[in-house]
Amino acid sequence: MSPGESDLTFLETARRCDYYGVKLHAARDVEGTEVNLTIAHMGIRVFHQFQCVSTFSWAKIRKLSFKRRKLLIKLHPENYQYYKETIEFLFETRNECKNFWKKCVEHHTFFRCIEVLPMKKTREGRFFSKGSAFRYQGRTQKQLIDYTREHRKRREPFTRPIKSGLSSSSNGRFSRPAFFDMTHPAYATVSERSVNLIGSGTMPSRNVP
Fold it and tell me: Which of 46, 140, 184, 202 is least enclosed, having the fewest CB within 10 Å?
């Protein structure tokens, strides 16, 4: 298997793991059952006893809000017939609930919106606004895809060197790695040296021909 095929196999395996790249947030549902909420690219996922029991897609979520320690997820009624229109989860503290809500807003905006419009600051808004004024400020997924397509450069083909293991000799020194090309001009000014490690001999020395 080539290094490129190994990378693709790793990514293919990682994306199938439920817990890869996510952080669990402890909460309780309306019945008091302990659950863990995670935020992923597809939406909000609910875990119970290390099993994913529900997924609320970003496309099906109509509104996200929080009130004190309670997170409120409003769904489109035509998409979730087995759930109420509003799903509630209770966190331990208000700060935990607000932090999770902020992450949900960022992910929902990034994956669902075409662009993020700048907020207009007015004096009236400071006195009559309700709730948090937090908004996602950054590029959306569509903007990043468009930017990559417009500025994509043709990459030159290359072969990745395969790193061989470092074999130690009897005198406590390591042999030169196989992927170093010491005839390359970049090594012309490198003099022979060795770095002493505390309690572990020396690092490999570079001999310039």
Answer: 184
User: Does a structural domain hold residue 82?
Assistant: yes
User: In degrees rounded to 5, what are phi and psi of residue 88?
Assistant: -120, 140
What tokens does 20 get?
């890869």
pLDDT digits (tens, 9 = 90+) for 15-47: 888 888 888 999 999 888 999 999 988 889 999
Tell me: the pLDDT tens digits for 103-130? 888 888 887 776 666 666 655 555 444 5
Is residue 59 domain-resident? yes
How many separate domains does the chain show? 1
Residues of the domain holding 60: 21-109
In sequence order, what DSSP letters do the residues of 147-203 get, joined into one string?
HHHHS--PPPP--PPPPPPPPB-TTS-BPPPTT--TTSGGGTTPPP---B-TTS-BP
Rounded distance between C-alpha atoms, residue 166 and residue 178, angstroms: 9
Residue 185 lies in a domain: no
